[in-house]
Each structure stands twice: as structure tokens, then as C-alpha cells.
Amino acid sequence: MEYRSLSELRPLRLDTVAAIGGLAIALALLPLRLFASQIYLNTVPLVLGTACLLYIAALYQQRDGESYPRLPESVTMALPSVVLVGLTAMVLLPVVQGERTAAFFGLSSVVATLLVGQILFASDRTFDRGLLLLQIVLFAFVFRFTALYATPGFVGIDIWTHMELASAIREEGSLGAISHDKHYASPFYHLLVVASSLLFDVSLRLGLYLSVGIVMPASILLVYATTNLLVSDRWSVLAAALYALASHVSMWGIHLIPTSLGLVFFLGMLYALIRVMRIEYTFRDFSLLLLLSVAVVLTHQVSTFIMLVLLLAAFVAQVVFVVGPFGLTRLDPDVFRVKKPVNLIGLVVFNFGMTIFVWSLTPYRQQSFLATVLSFFTQTLEESAGFLNIASGSTGGGEAASVTDPTLLEQVLPYIDALGFLFLLGATFAGCLYVVHRRRAEQSVFTLLLAAAFMLVFVMGMPMFGIHTFIPTRWFAFLYAPMAILGAIGLRTVTQNLSPAFVVSCLLLFTLIYPGAMVLAVESNADNPVFDEQHERLAYDEAELAAVESVAALTGSPDGSEIRPDQRLYTDHPYQTVISRTGAYPSTTTATVPNDSVADHEYVVYREAQSTRAVYFTDESGEGRITQISRDQLCRPDQATIYTNGEVTVCTPSPATA
Q1: H-run or E-run covering 61
Q2: If you placed Cys at 262, which of 294, 300, 336, 382 could pair as Cys (CB 3.0 to 4.6 Å)?
Q3: Whose CA is closest to 239, among 433, 488, 30, 468?
Q4: R_g (Cα) of the chain, nearest Å
Q5: pTM of the model
């Protein structure tokens, strides 16, 4: 191991300046934790500072071709069989236990760790790209489809609304069935589900699983293909694995809504975009890019906005390399093979114009979608925007709120949920520093860097100012694509110059923590949370779904306008969403249960999960909180029971007291 002199380091080199600047930013952000309590304020400065220090250390050290230790060939050859056995057990466990339990997620963590370990520690001789990609895709299929198999209905909240829309289209045989809804102008998801159900002659549920359900895990290969345009097979396969394991990516493979299909088209567009920047493209390549961008617009509004951010990043990258400070020359030894920047102004103008046109015609809350979104954004800026106004966007779906001091688990749990993201973020920072080197920089990698940076502004920056209009939780799965690519490049950077012992330590730490952290994150197990007393379950059993059908039969599923305010039905969140969104009883909302007291509602629905799991109620001040209640706190003794199946009970005013 040799160390470079300060003169060799050239401190004013762009990547060196960026690393030092990143370290300074990390130090400047540290005091913010004194003014607000938020997980990213507490962790991101540490992650950024660590990544910058590692990169500076990699610049300072110089390794003479010495590679870090790899696994013995016999172990590498045996691991695929071990993974296959693990995948088989992952299939059998939900079949035997009836749901994805903590044992399933523990086993999944082990299998995922073995997968990442193979990629990082297999020798060049035994590294098999095809076999590893097969294992990654099989893991993605098994992890997602076991959740779909074990859930009687659907996983998630919005899915019930979309299935109602698809059902209306199928029954009427016309898109006009949803002309009142914002998805009327972006119907590709609903048409695909209906077409699949008719083509295979199955229910809409199976049609959804046979179309969007299958495409979602298969789309992981697009991340591999995109990364392979930039770096070698090992790191391309690693990027695919990092993306496949990401928690929000898993969630949209289970909660199958237009966001899921929009994500697939986004990945295809990202591949096509990087491809035209990396090769001497033809009209066919650019036509594919244009077609995929139109598909996104016709699928999902949030996905469309994220796509526009990606295109904006690509355009800014073009400007940087046309008029910016990067003096690129074909004589520079460059790992990314520099080529002339691609002119994207026409594509950007076309997509912005088409988006504005479609959104102007999209109905949404008695206005166009564009007008409504602009109104929401303006209202947010006027009423709730402000520096460190983090709480303004809180909703009933995050950390458990409690009037008492939080337990140790409640304090640690947010960090467990975010741990995988933070590890990938650190690798991404290192990858960003690598690609800003003057001889490595080009339009394609700068597009990834700027796209990740812009998305992080929407995901973490704007919520810090109380701006949640852009639904930041929907952005993570899209953000993970450039992060996985840059993260793989970042880990590659760590292995190049640092000492073998230190490299092994870093890679081993990443291998042991990242897969398990992503599997245990709440987004990966929304169907049956590992920490079920802190996170709500977004799936229902047979008895709970049967009760929804019974509520519809008992009430006749009246239209919302026919229900008086005093006839509103109250229950917990999220159970109230499935009752209202299926049309069983549209006027259903979250019950108000005061602390250590009883609810004062006439029509209520109690289920056993309210006494055993994490569900949301509102307190007397109207704040949502996770709590557990007894049956008598919601269904009072003076009320009448008009329906019960042993698990769910519907209570109404008693005739004797009416």
C-alpha cells in the first residue's frame, strides 16, 4: 500500500473539491438536529460526511493492483443451490403459515444476504452473470407473489379504488365509465388489467397479477441493462440486486396500482435515455424513448411529473457539457467512453407540452387536474410552508404518535425502517463524487447524478419546508433507480484504491446490513408488518372482507349523497378505507376515541385487530394516533349489534334507547 503525495492529489480537482465541499456541508447540517426532530436531519449529515471521507481516503491511498480477498470457488459454486433451497422455503412458509410471518422475513433476509454476498465476493472466474440475475429475479418474484398469494383481497389502500374503476370499465365495456375520475385521461393501467382479465378469462384480481404483477419484478432487468451501459457485469448485477431489494420497490410490487406500472415505464425510459447517450443511436432508439415517455403520461400523473424531473436533469446535463466547465477530450482515458452530448430539447418540450395538455383535460375535484394541483401548491405555500416545518405534512401512516414517552422500540424503529436507504445513500454519494471527475464526467452519468439530486429535493428537501404537495413517499421507488446505479459505482470506487482489509470490512458490513434492513422496512411487509404494534397492516383476512360485503348488503350500498351526517359509519384507519372505497358504505371515516374513554358515535364497526394490532384512531383534539382499544370503547353496551362474524362487529343505536 502506497500513499499519494499532496501534489499528486491536486486538491483543486473537481471531485476532490466536491468531496471537501460535501464534508463541509455535512458539518454545517449537523446543528439542524437541535432545532427539529427528524430522522433524516439526524442521519443524512453523518452519511454524507462518511461517504466524503471514504472517497478522500480512496484518493489518498494507492493500491498496486492488489485485489481484495474473494470467496473460495467451492463456496461460490455451492451458494446458488443454497439460495434455491432458501427460495423454496420462502414459498412453503406462507403456504403452511397462511401469511408472511416474521420467520418468512428473517429467511428472506438471509437469502438476500447470500445473493449480495455472491455478487461482491465471487471470484472473476466463478462470477456468472446469468445465474446471478436469475437468482435476483426469482427472489423478487417469490418475495412479492407470496404476499399476493397469502392475501385474500388486495394489499394497500388505493388498489381498492382502482379495482372499482377497472370493474366499471369491464361492466360497461367503455372508458366512459370513469369519465368523472382523474384516471380517465391516464387509463392505461385500468385498460391493461381489464384486457388481461378478458384475455385470460379470469377475475380482475388475477388479471392484475398476470399483467402488472409479473411485469414489476421482471422490470428489475432494466436496471441491470442501464447500468451495463456504464460499468462491467459485476457492478451492473449489483445495481439490479440493490434495486430489487429496495423496500419501496417491493411495496409497489405488492400494492399494484398505476404507480407500479408508471415505475415500469419510467425504468424503460431511463434505459432508453442512457442508451441514446451512450451509443450512436438510430431513429428507432429515439422513437422508443418517445413512446415510453408517452406511456408514462397515459399511466399516472405522479410518475409523469417524476419523468419530467428526469428529462429536466438530462437537459441540464446537456447544457453543462455544451457550455459548462468540463473540457472533455477523446484523448482522456475514460471509463465511460465520452461522446458528444445528445440534444434533448425537442423531447423535453414535447413531453412538457403533452403533459400540460393532458392535465388540462383531466377532471379532478370539479376542476382540471392541472388547476387543482397548482391550487394545492399555492395553498401549501401560503398556509404551511416554512423552514423546518416538518410536522405540517404528517399523516396517519408514519411513526406512532403517543401521549406518553416513547418506548425504546418506538425510538429505534424509524432508524430500522430507514437503514437500508441510508446505506444506499452513502454508496450513492461516493458514486456521485466518482463521476464528477473531469475525465469520467459525461452526459449519461451526470443525468443520473442530477436526477438523484433533484428527486432528493422533492423527497427530503421540500418536506423540510412543510411542502408535501408532490407526495414525496411516491418518489422513493423512482429515486432508487439512479441511486442503485450510482451506488454500485460508489461501491466499485471503494474497492479500487482502499486497502484490501478495509474494503472487505466495508463490503461485508454492506452485505450483512443492507438486504436485511430493506426486507424488514415497513414498506416491504405492508401485508403483515414485522413490528405489528407500531405499523398498520394494509391487508385484511377473510372475516374482515366478509364483513365489508355484509355492510354493503345490510345498507344497500347507498350513494354518498344519500347518507345523512348522523348516519356516517366509524371505524379504524385503514379499515375505513376498504369499506368506503369498495362502495360498501361510502360515508365511512376514522373513529374518534378519546384517551382512556369511549367513542361517541352511533354507527361503528369494531374488529379484533383494533385490540391487538396497530390501527389509527383520532383523539379528542382531532390528531391521528396509533392505539389499541377494547371492544366496549367503540361498540358501547347501550348499542345494538346488527352483525358479527366473531371477528368483526357492526353496532348501531339500540331501539330501546333511540
Answers
A1: strand 61-62
A2: 300
A3: 488
A4: 26
A5: 0.92
